[in-house]
Amino acid sequence: MNIPDIIIAIDGYSSTGKSSLAKKIARKFGFLYLDSGALYRGVTLFAQEEGLISRLGKVNPALEEALAGLVLSFAEDGRLMMGPRCIEPEIRSMEVSSQVSNIAAVPYVRAWVDSQLREYGRRGRIVMDGRDIGTAVFPEAQLKVFMTASEEVRARRRYEEMVAKGETPLLEEVVQNLRERDYIDSHRETNPLRRADDAFELDNSDMSFEEELAWVQGVIQGKFGIL
Ligand code: DC
Each residue's pLDDT tens digit in the chain (227 positions)? Predict the structure, then answer.
């Protein structure tokens, strides 16, 4: 299926499988995949390493100026780099996960990340996942998907992902982290997580990955009149 040079925005709650679906779409249609959450995670790691966020998640206002010296970029294989250093394993740790929503709620951090994301968007043919891609970063995106799934399914997925990586999380801790992040993400003042009016909603609690992909293909076919 040949699809036009569009921007595809995939938003939704934590651990709904946004990135797996976005990566699959990118491979299938030859699009560039961009993980916007990785940039918020990169900023969080930076703030932690620079001592600009407290244990309780209080952000030091000096972060704003410090961001001028931060260079985050995606390597060819999609991994996040801080200058020349690959920070991919660290940004997925529980330590970063537990503070990233506090960092992502800071308006100047969002402005910093948005400007980077929009730069990538200029080339078109991208699929980007996050929380506000269809509402704030690319409100003009031609295809928007909003993903949901039950809390139980999401927690189980996240737990299994972490175990597969050799971590030893407590299921209760994973559930707690999901709840906290969803709450902060959907209640912050600047660009909270919400479904764009023109987004197609996908609840994948009881769907296989193949069914999800078929659903997306159906939406693309319907929307762009492609057979
Ligand atoms: O998708 P993720 O779990 O890697 O995202 C990490 C955090 O970043 C998430 O808790 C909310 C925030 N985020 C955001 O506020 N806006 C985005 N576009 C992407 C992520």
Answer: 778 889 999 999 999 999 999 999 999 989 999 999 999 999 999 999 999 999 999 999 999 999 999 999 999 888 999 999 999 989 998 899 899 999 999 999 999 999 999 998 888 899 999 999 999 999 999 999 999 999 999 999 999 988 998 889 899 999 999 999 899 999 999 999 999 999 999 999 999 999 999 999 999 988 888 76
Locate the ligand 1 atom nearest the alpha carbon of residue 11 and give its number: 18
**Euclidean distance between CA atoms 161 and 159, whole angstroms:** 5
CA dihedral 35, 37, 42, 48 (to 10 degrees): -160
What class is the 7-213 domain? alpha beta
Q: Which residue is closest in CA terms to ligand 1's atom 16? A: 131
Angstrom distance (rounded) from CA 42 to CA 10: 20
Residue 138 CB less than 6 A away from ligand 1: no
Give the global pTM. Answer: 0.92
